[in-house]
Amino acid sequence: MLKHHLMVTSITAAATFAGLGLSAFATDDPQVLAAMVANSAAQDMALGDKVETLLRSDVGLAGSQIRILARSAVITIAGTVPDEHALRRALNLASEVRGVREVRNALEVDLPK
């Protein structure tokens, strides 16, 4: 019974402190919100640039036409790659970049004509 009481008390305390910490970041101030949005956009741009540089410098992706879109740490890779191996390589490389939360595939394999 004592274990159960201690566990319930610990969970309640943790939830309370987590709520207090999160409420410190809640705001309706338009200037603060604008700064948060600008910071998020700058982080997405930097993350997208990092992924794009990595993919463009990879020898295994030579001949690929790749475009990167980053939004909220979600990377979308679009364009064409020469084969299925290059497609998988691009997705794997992007997913390994620190800060990337998710990678979405909008790539197409450029089939020979």
Give your account of this protein's structure.
With 113 residues, this protein is α+β, with helices and mostly antiparallel strands. The chain is 54% helix and 20% strand. The chain is built from three helices and three strands. The chain is elongated. The relative contact order is 0.12. The model has no long low-confidence stretch (mean pLDDT 81).
Q: Within the CATH hierarchy, at the fold level, what is the topology? A: Histidine-containing Protein, Chain: A
Q: What letter string, H or E per element, gives the SSE order?
A: HHEEHE
Tell me the major beta sheet: 3 strands, mixed
Number of domains: 1
Topology of helices and strands:
Layout: H1 2-23, H2 30-56, E1 65-71, E2 74-81, H3 84-95, E3 102-109
Short descriptors:
113 residues; alpha+beta; Histidine-containing Protein, Chain: A; 3-stranded mixed beta sheet; 3 helices; 3 strands; 54% helix; elongated
Question: What does this entry show, briefly?
Answer:
With 113 residues, this protein is α+β, with helices and mostly antiparallel strands. The chain is 54% helix and 20% strand. The chain is built from three helices and three strands; from the N terminus they run ααββαβ.
